[in-house]
Amino acid sequence: MLFKQQVLLRQKLFVLGSLAVGSLLYIVARVGSLDRLQPTCPIEGQFGDQEQIMLRALQYKRGLSHDLRKGNVTKEQIRLHNMVQQLPQAIIIGVRKGGTRALLEMLNLHPAVVKASQEIHFFDNDENYAKGIEWYRKKMPFSYPYQITIEKSPAYFITEEVPERIYKMNSSIKLLIIVREPTTRAISDYTQVLEGKERKNKTYYKFEKLAIDPTTCEVNTKYKAVRTSIYTKHLERWLKYFPIEQFHIVDGDRLITEPLPELQLVEKFLNLPPRISQYNLYFNATRGFYCLRFNIVFNKCLAGSKGRIHPEVDPMVVNKLHKFFHPFNQKFYQITGRTFSWPYK
């Protein structure tokens, strides 16, 4: 008799537990759906004090964007939601291995930002550019009129034709440049190429052999990884078309260790209301990087290829590169109005 009572008690507890879990899941789903249906308070838009932006919940934006990528949304639904494919109002133009992907993904935390998922290479690729501006527009994600579309293609920063081409599309566009300490960035650039060679079982020169000219024992400016890190040379070409006020410099080294202040500066530059908070960023000790928290359900970390371990480089070569980049860095600080504690010896 006692055994039967225990069995009945266990069954009741199991049923009650199942009901409790089911109720909790329903509440979570219900809260998510209410967030999707109800816009938050209107705020000032990025296009002037007269325009008000209605910021829908981030869950709704992400859910609909997912459906669009999967082809699960009809043209009628897009029309009803007043969604369009907009040309970007801001572009992350570089720098390669400066943290462009991390910056784009972090900005995508903001409900008024939508991102192009892939590097489009419209302005730096002659074949793509010949396809015309409508081809470029159709590569953009669907968005609400109040949202900012952002794309990133790091090759833009160092490609000569790009500033004029972007100017012809939109002379008032906002341009984001994320930089790291130049020597570290060059070694990171080398590391990515080295990893690609190793995957194909190919040999590759050591960094020291590429960065230093063996005949002169001076820094080899013909080596692309070195040339890309001379930020001021590339920026000067852009300044022929755009005033410095249309650029914002992001500290890529600080974005790794302390991302929120950098993201808040970008929000301000883009005239966006402050929406990204510490809640959205959590440090993953295993990865050694900050990961992204979109809501109580959805988290995201950057791809495993980010944060590669750099090979050891001869300290004498590192010092030589520090000294080489120093005068260019000083000019970069002067032009941009932003100073970094980059070593010079």
TrEMBL record:
Q: Where is the active site?
A: 97 (for sulfotransferase activity)
Q: Does the keyword Membrane apply?
A: yes
Location in the cell reads: Golgi apparatus membrane
One annotated GO molecular function is: [heparan sulfate]-glucosamine 3-sulfotransferase activity
Is Transmembrane one of the keywords? yes
Residues binding 3'-phosphoadenylyl sulfate, per UniProt: 97-101, 180, 188, 290, 306-310
UniProt keyword terms in alphabetical order = Disulfide bond, Glycoprotein, Golgi apparatus, Membrane, Signal-anchor, Transferase, Transmembrane, Transmembrane helix
**EC number(s) reported in the record:** 2.8.2.-
List all disulphide bridges recorded for this chain.
Answer: 291-301
A single GO cellular-component term from the record reads: Golgi membrane
Q: How does it sit in the membrane?
A: Single-pass type II membrane protein
Principal localisation: Golgi
Do you know which Pfam families this protein is assigned to? Sulfotransfer_1 (PF00685)
InterPro entries named in the record? NST/OST (IPR037359), P-loop_NTPase (IPR027417), Sulfotransferase_dom (IPR000863)
Q: Where is the Sulfotransferase domain?
A: 88-332
Family, similarity comment: Belongs to the sulfotransferase 1 family.
Designated name of the protein: Sulfotransferase
